[in-house]
Amino acid sequence: MDSGDDIHDANDIESLNEDIESLNDNYDNYDDDAAAADYFDDDDDDDTHPAKSRRIEQSFTILKESDIRQRQEDDIRRVAAVPSIPHGAASILLCHYNWSVSRVNDAWFADEHEVRRTVGLLEKPVYDNPADAKELTCGICFEAYPLSEIETASCGHPFCFSCWGGYIGTSINDGPGCLLLRCPESACGAAVDQDMINLLASGEDKDKYDRYLLRSYIEDNKKTKWCPAPGCEHAVNFDPTGTGKDYDVSCLCSYSFCWNCTEESHRSVDCGTVSKWILKNSSESENVTWILAKTKPCPECKRPIEKNHGCMHMTCSQPCRFEFCWICLGAWRKHGGSCNRYESGEQNETEKRREMAKKSLEKYTHYYKRWASNQSSRQKAVADLQEMQSVHMKNLGDSQRQTELELKFITEAWLQIVECRRVLKWTYAYGYYLPDNEQAKKKFFEYLQGEAESGLERLHHCAEKVIQVFLSDDPPSPSEEFNDFRKKLTELTNVTRNYFENLVKALENVHDGNPCDLDKRPWGAGAMMNEMKE
Amino acid sequence: MSTPARKRLMRDFKRLQHDPPAGISGAPQDNNIMLWNAVIFGPDDTPWDGGTFKLTLQFTEDYPNKPPTVRFVSRMFHPNIYADGSICLDILQNQWSPIYDVAAILTSIQSLLCDPNPNSPANSEAARMFSENKREYNRRIREIVEQSWTAD
User: Fold this and answer.
1) Mean pLDDT over all residues of chain A?
2) Chain A residues touching residue B99 (CB < 8 angstroms)
3) Could you give the 3-state DSSP secondary structure of residue B1?
């Protein structure tokens, strides 16, 4: 029951990228699978925006660090296009307005004076240093320095280089708040911009500041997020104007996740269900339910007791030593060995609660088992796909005299399995939360799920087991047999894809807000096929 | 070894000796410039009049970029002073500025005595009494003043 397992996927697939790259052509079949689109992204074009991906409706862009820096610089320049805003000030303004160029412009042109005041961009110094002074006193160490060793922000308060360095360094080491750093003088709000940081901070501090600025661009911007895969440094820009509610995003690291909740991608099941399910899996509450279902409290000391064998004559452990009957929980002494006589209303509230808890635990276990085994089955499939590509494909090509292109159907089958295991896994979280009283809906969903599952099992069996004969040390010579296998696997792949399309569509239609229609819709197989062709 | 923090504390000490603000005094402990003892005298013509309240100030090498930890050693009764003597004062937390020195810190604390902020109470009994029962509040303060003469 560890939701942390989910993240393993990312590592498992990491090396897939290169392997599948060789198949970088003609992948129409995966149109609606964002994950596949990026499997084939060319790793070499580091400098271009990967936005120009094959998917036309793709509503997201993966940003490498160079892309992020480029975009950030572009935005700063756009703000600095206003003559009265220098580059450093533009960066500070954007920090204050969550990196929205239009918000900065709107605010600036609505009330420049007010914006300058809140952000700390003073037009002229508020503190006049004597014009003819050769030396100024630093406001922090109170020593006198020649003008060349004194620096001020736009306010004019003088501090020496070394005190500035300490002040800036302390702030940078305190965290990203340093991006909104102000003059050290109390109650002076003058902003300290990156140009001053670069002039006055140590090399290490400058790097940290730079890092915070980059992070702020992603984290404070509503349209961007970091890829949540461990160790991945890419970010995702998501354009919500795209079609509807497809939040699936697939990073260059090949981790796919949901833009909306940043959990592992769970298309067809909504974010609320996913977060409830993950919380449930990780929470201790199930342990409590277990204790409630499988144990009874000692009638004397109330400690939970699990009965593992033997007779009904229970003796509580030290120091309680209370003797009682497991069935009626009465004291053994009074009860003399039997409690066989029925007395109406005997089953008390506690007993009923225990019964209910037991049922609810059984239900949860049912769905959890299936959720978890699809999860591990998917991880296994990812590993099998990798092995297929790195080891078996070549041998198979040799023994059956097939070209790489001709063997593509095997990779396709495995990719389909990986994707279907993911979808199937989440349908179990969905199923768990389906209300018991919506029988028609539940039945229909379970029907589709069942169809999809048995299709997937056939496909998985074929890709995993039936193929073995061709992978053995002594494979049959090129023959009709292999062609039959090709036909069978391709067919199973297509059939399974259709089943899952239907399942996903049915679930998504429910989310679209017409759940009560689910059982009334003309969901005959023909109708579904028609819809899919659209 | 002379670090920026120690240099600055030496300068704070010199300033406190040559130009001490009214009603405060302070000095580093022997052999440790990072730990100071200080005394704040209760302002004249207030219930605090005549009190001698002892404090300690613990500095770090981040001073003056980070404030010291300041604590009353004498028993106190004040809306913004906790039972353990630590003080709830903005300039010792988020409103700290490196332009403050020991004299400024002690002066601020001195003015906090007569000018508490009952909205962020560290001692709820004192805060309630300050707003609801000034007579009793003043009586408790005079008790504290008397105790300050006898404590170690």
Assistant:
1) 79
2) 139-140, 184-186
3) coil
User: How many beta-carbon pairs below 8 A join chains A and B?
Assistant: 34
The set of long-range contacts for B85-93, using a CB threshold of 8 Å and a minimum separation of 24, is: B85/B55, B86/B122, B87/B112, B87/B122, B88/B120, B88/B122, B91/A186, B91/B67, B92/B67, B92/B68, B93/B67
Is B114 marked active-site? no
- Residues of B in CB contact (< 8 Å) with A are 4, 7-8, 11, 62, 64-66, 91, 95, 97-101
Task: For residue B21, give the DSSP letter.
Answer: P
Residues 6+ apart with CB under 8 A from A381: A414, A417, A418, A421, A460
pLDDT of B65 over the 90 cut: yes
The CATH superfamily of B4-149 is Ubiquitin Conjugating Enzyme (3.10.110.10)
Non-local CB neighbours of B64 within 8 Å, separated by 6+ positions:
A140, B5, B8, B98, B99, B100, B101
> How far lies A414's CA from each of A26, A95, A139, A207, B137, in Å?
17, 46, 69, 44, 79
- Which residue from A162, A171, A186 is facing B99, i.e. has the nearest CB? A186
Asked whether the beta carbons of A158 and A126 are under 8 A apart, the reply is no
How does pLDDT run across A180-223, given as a tens digit for each residue? 999 999 889 999 999 999 999 999 999 999 999 999 999 998 88
d(CA A156, CA A390): 66
Collapse the DSSP code of A393 into the 3-class scheme (helix H, G, I; strand E, B; otherwise coil) and give the result: helix
Q: Which residue of B has its CA nearest to A166?
A: B65
Contact residues, chain A, for B67 at CB < 8 Å: none
CATH architecture for residues A66-219: 2-Layer Sandwich (3.30)
- DSSP-assigned states of every residue in A158-224: -EEHHHHHHHHHHHHHT-GGGGG-B-SSTT---B--HHHHHHHS-HHHHHHHHHHHHHHHHHS-TTE
Give alpha helix (H) positions in A328-348.
Answer: 332-335
How near does any CA of chain A get to the CA of B8, in Å?
Answer: 6
ipTM: 0.88
CB contact under 8 Å between B7 and A141, yes or no, is yes
Q: Which two tokens stand for residue A210?
A: 């730079």
Closest CA to A473 of A411, A390, A399: A399
* Domain residue ranges of chain B, discontinuous segments joined by +: 4-149
> What does DSSP assign to residue B81?
B
Helix (H, G, I), strand (E, B) or coil at A146: strand
pLDDT band of A325, cuts 50, 70, 90: confident
Distance linking the first and last C-alpha atoms of chain B? 33
End-to-end Cα spacing for chain A? 41
Contact A141 B97 (CB under 8 A): no
How far apart, in whole angstroms, are the C-alpha atoms of residue B99 and residue B101? Answer: 7
Q: Indicate the residue of B11, B65, B91 with minimum beta-carbon distance to A170.
A: B65
Nearest Cα of chain A lies from the Cα of B88 at a distance, in angstroms, of 18
The beta strands (E) that lie in chain B are given as 24-29, 32-41, 52-58, 69-72
On the question of a common fold for A3-56+362-533 and A66-219, the answer reads no
CA dihedral A72, A73, A75, A81 (to 10 degrees): 160
Give per-residue pLDDT as tens, A285-319. 567 667 766 778 788 877 778 876 667 778 887 77
Cross-strand bridge partners of residue A248: A258
pTM: 0.67
CB A140 to CB B100 under 8 A?
Answer: no
Say which amino acid occupies A45. D
CATH topology of domain A3-56+362-533: Four Helix Bundle (Hemerythrin (Met), subunit A) (1.20.120)
How distant is the Cα of B100 from the closest Cα of chain A, in angstroms? 8
Q: Which of A311, A325, A328, A516 is catalytic?
A: A311
Domain locations in chain A as residue ranges: 3-56+362-533, 66-219, 224-282, 285-336
